[in-house]
Amino acid sequence: xxxxVILSVVFAVVSVSACRNNPGKAGEFVLADSDSLSxxxxxxxMTNEDVIRSFSAPLETxxxxxxxxxxxxxxxxASSIDANxxxxxxxxxxxxxxxxxxxxxxxxxxxxxxxxxxxASIKKLAEDLRVGQFFDFETIKRLSLNNSRxxxxxxLSIDSYNKIDKxxxxxxxxxxxxxxxxxxxxxxxYFATQVMKTSPDDLLRDRIGEQKLFLADLIKLAEPxxxxxxxxxxxxxxxxxxxxxxxxxxxxxxxxxxxxxxxDDGLLITQTESSRVEMTDQQxxxxxxxxxxxxxxxxxxx
Amino acid sequence: MKKIIAALLILIPAFSITAGQSVSDPLMSKCxxxxxxxxxxxxxxxxxxxxxxxxRDFRYKAKMSLWKNTKYRFTLCTADNSNGVLILTIWxxxxxxxxxxxxxxxxxxxxxxxxxxxxSGVYQxxxxxxxxxxxxxxxxxxxIQ
Lengths: 302, 145
What we know:
The structure holds two protein chains of two kinds. Chain A is mostly helical. Chain A has twelve helices and four strands. Chain A has one domain (5-299). Chain A has helices at 2-20, 34-41, 49-52, 57-68, 89-108, 116-128, 137-146, 150-170, 174-198, 202-222, 230-246, 281-300, and strands at residues 250-254, 259-263, 266-270, 274-278. Chain B is of the alpha+beta class. Chain B contains two helices and eight strands; from the N terminus they run H-H-E-E-E-E-E-E-E-E. Chain B has a four-stranded antiparallel sheet. Chain B has a four-stranded antiparallel sheet with strand order 2-7-4-5, with no helix packed on it.
């Protein structure tokens, strides 16, 4: 009897942890047929849409701030967004993207323990859009409160957003996934332009100018929905207005061969080829102004 | 007896919390640990390929943007029972090879590649397993400060 009780308790412990760690055993995998893999892997992933559908851009922007020595600033966050207020799926998807960028900014700065309100808002918006099942709120919250394992936290946050994006597209709600991506980009670009205003820096100036490369593809992502309703129409107009400020920004390239060196078990490759942004102070000023205007308009619809 | 059960019951939540803290995919979790303390996760590629031929082009390809003035780390992790080792090559928009995780002369496959990017743009990343063999692997792209 005693043995059975102990066994039952041990079984319960193992079952609980097994449920949490169920997917993707590294040691047991079934290999797909190579023909089907080649069909999947080459053409389907080769569009620039693949590049745009990345939620890592806000992290790269925040990382650049840290390289510059820029301190964390609470004021940049979209704290006026109230996820409990009434709103349609348009606003909710856009805000989900905006708050995702805010979360990335906070995480990179290690402000994980103070991001609980933000996480709760993200959870509420995700649930309202019927994608809450993909946002691993409890694990992200636990890792945030522990203020440790930043890499796992970044992975889980981005993975949750990627799953939401994928599901929305599969569920014929691609317009919402596009809104999320546009929201995240606008917020990251807003951070960059705000920091540029207070702490001008050549690296950041280049990064803002280089967004020209990205913006044209972002507009293509929005285009199929521009005539779907007035809200989307206005957003498309805003994106085109932003792009108009970039039209005369030039990006030039210098050729060079990569330099390779070995270190420990790895390689270090330094690219000598380079890109250079030519952007006047006036162009930069206009980009800063329009980014502030567009982003603040989107969060004030609250 | 009661003490043993009580001790086990106390252990349940502690064990569950510990289990829940980690990333659920063991290979991903292992690879995240391998990126190093100064690396910050950006994205990952999960590659699973069947047996191919050595002379073929890289079978898994995707595009990603890389930004000037950023140091990236591409960490490559291969599951234990894979036949080949996960390898990576990156090309620029003009199809020029920018980096490769395998030395073409010695055949040595490196477990990570650090890349100091000086040209912003869209790059093509290609993954395969050495000799076109079968395998399962994860590559994590991180930023290094």
